[in-house]
Amino acid sequence: MSNVLVCIKRVPDLGGEISLTADAMAVDDSSLGHTVSPHEDCAVELAIQVAKDTGGTATVLTLGSSDAVEQLRNALALGCTAAVLVEADAGAFGPADVAAAIADVVRAHEAAGTSYDLVLLGNDASDTGDFQVGVRLSYLLDRPVVTGVSTLSVSGDRVDVRGSSPDGGTEIFDVALPAVLTVSEGGVEPRYPSIPGRMKAKKIAVEEVVPTHEPAGPGRRRLKLPPLQPSQVEVLGEGPAAAGAVVDLLEKLGVVR
Amino acid sequence: MSPATHAAVLVLVETDGGGATEVSRETLTFVRGLDADVHALVVGDGPSGLVDQLGAYGVSVVHHADGDAFTSYAAAAWAAAVVAAVGDATVVTAAGTPRGNEVLAHVACRLGVTMAANVVEVDSTSPLVVSRQVLGGSALEEIALTDGVAVFSVAGHACDPAEAETSTTPVVHPIDVAVSDADLRARVVRTEPGEPDESGGLKAARVVVGAGRGAGGADGFADLLELTELLDASLGVSRVVTSLGWRPHHEQVGQTGSRVSPDLYVACGISGAIQHWAGMSSSKTILAINTDPDAPMVTKAHYAVIGDLHEIVPAINEELRRRRS
Fold first, then answer.
1. What pLDDT digit, counting tens, does each position of B191-230 carry?
2. B149 with B70, same domain?
3. Neighbours of B162 (CB within 10 A)
4. Domain end residue (candidates: B128, B155, B184)
5. Where in the sequence is the domain holding A178, given as residue range(s)?
6. Minimum Cα–Cα distance from B144: chain A residue
7. Is A232 touching B (CB cutoff 8 A)?
8. Per the domain annotation, does B2 fall within a domain?
């Protein structure tokens, strides 16, 4: 039986253009929907699979405002069995702070009788792209960590882990539990929530935790957007009649063999 | 001449059969802007000629970590080697690859410092302030690295790789690394070759034919694949294409797929969402084929053809064949 903790983050669901808040410290998300990163969708899927395969549990955790309960409920609807909200201003937490807050929850649950064989995270959040919360968490918990995981298989007290190698192949790790893994998109297909799943999710109580850790912050001074470039597109034509102009361009660029 | 702001910058160099990888050579080029001695760390066997190549990029000291602990990859062991090689370096960097970011995250933990991933600009050297990509490269975050040692990775294509004006003859410095059992707890136990890849070396391709939702289905790629063959190009797809199962994930271009910077990107039926744009916006020329003249991909492209890719791409293929014959 494996208990899994999977960590997700509420992020703006970006469309075509980004605008910033007046102080340039955050994305203006007042008119945007919210989601989690694709990597985290896959981490949730793997957590649910491991819990089902081993008869264990899958607890989903996020750090953020009470609005992030929406993302926790989505994960519960998919098959996670419990949820934890670490209620805090996510913008004030840097990657080391987030790792410390997650570690505190792991230790507190362990003291209360629930230990996690696996902690899964996304490889990097789609907004901040810090690439380090999982590694920092592993140091705080003194557990092995593998990043960029595509698939995994738990067997007894070990986990077989697969991820991409730099040459395009696959690297396989055999790691003792408990462990921390960060997941990259591409290994599994996230499931969709069922209506019964959504109904069940509404009834599950979300544990709320207030972090005791005083955040050092991300070190952000400001965000910057690239200057808007006026459109300089040259329309070569419409429909198949433009094929000649396209091939002229390809020849001019020197890309025709 | 004013004294250097930083005594030395240490670069973790990744290698392939040809020497330092292109992204590592970009990193070596990027850090020369810090006005510091450039030191490199090579882990394991380096390819022949590597030291001379690093000298051409201005490296004055090559630290070399070798031994049983490095025969297969373990991020924590590599990080132990980086820490052992730091010496008087006040900046530690690597390319912003999965491996570079992973090892630097370990290094930052061991040194107890901040880490900034995917830096593209140095705004100030004293104090060290850098700008790094966030939101998949659609925005930049300015961040101050004021801890004792600044740790950051350099985003791919932050600069073009260029040899130094004056090459050096590096001193090679073998280092002893204390690797603990804990450092080897997560170690590669075996590797398997990649699947046959119709994306054809996507990251290094000179021409990429991109396809999005407009392809219409898994059976909608025949003409696009023919175009890739005619142009000796690679196929790259948007996330929706892989999410719908039309094409495999390793062909995905974007924030959670490959980052490409070809001479030409032909975006067929791709609307141009930020997440896809993040993966191909550094293409030198972008040609968009789309039914919607107001789609972001069209308005941001250099050239566009308005219409259905299923009519336009076969016509282009036919014209290419006609001119070839």
1. 998 765 545 588 888 999 999 999 999 999 999 999 999 9
2. yes
3. 14
4. B184
5. 4-209
6. A219
7. yes
8. no
